[in-house]
Each structure stands twice: as structure tokens, then as C-alpha cells.
Please model this.
Amino acid sequence: MTETTTQSSLTVGMVTFDCERPRTLARFWQEALQAEPVLETDDFVILGGRPQVAFQRVERPTQGRNRLHLDLSGGDRAHEVARLVALGAEVVRNHDVDGFCWTVMRDPLGNEFCVGDPHEPNDHPASSA
Model:
């Protein structure tokens, strides 16, 4: 493992399943985890708890590896992205939806994950829909 000199402020804020039918998959996990939805739309469902579990509609779910990904948050996003790049990750793309910003990244083995701005459970942009 690579030794680093800076301390991480990242935590797992949400585990997100990419799927074709978010409500169907969310119902299963709602029962499995005994967690209530804190947000539910046709395209996105978030179950409460820590970390939160989310289900988002995608046109073509990833086949095989990486059917779910980590959403990390905490501290200064730009600093954390730079720190992760130094560890071997790469930036895939940046997003900004109604002021909620996140960076999609890929780990050294190609698994995608996101680094987002710190937020509270009900701060997701879809919650205003």
C-alpha cells in the first residue's frame, strides 16, 4: 500500500446501484435493510441510513463488474480528487446539477466511483423534483 502524507476526509456517503428499474430494486433492498425511502422519483430512489443506499435509472446498466459504485463525500472535493489521482485514479467526467457537483472517477482497475461535495441526506438535486 502506498504511504500518503495527507489525511483523507472522505466517507462513504452513499452506495448507488445502476439499474433499469430503480423502484423495483429499491423495494427489495428496503425490505432487506428495513430502511425507509427518503427520496423517490421514477429515476432515483434513496433509502435512509448511513451509508444511504440509492438506485438510479440508467439506459444500459454495466454488465459484469461495477454494477454499483461508491459515492464518496467529505472535505474539499478538488483536493480529494487530486489526492486520488496521485494514488492512481483517473477523472472520467465532472457533473453539476443544480449546484450539486461531483466527479466520476475510475480506480486503477477501471471501477468507477464518484467524489461529491459534502451534503446532507435530503440535499440531493432530485429531492426538489
In short: The first helix runs from residue 22 to 33. The beta strands are 11-19, 37-40, 44-47, 52-57, 68-73, 90-97, 100-106, 112-116. The CA atoms of residues 31 and 47 lie 10 Å apart.
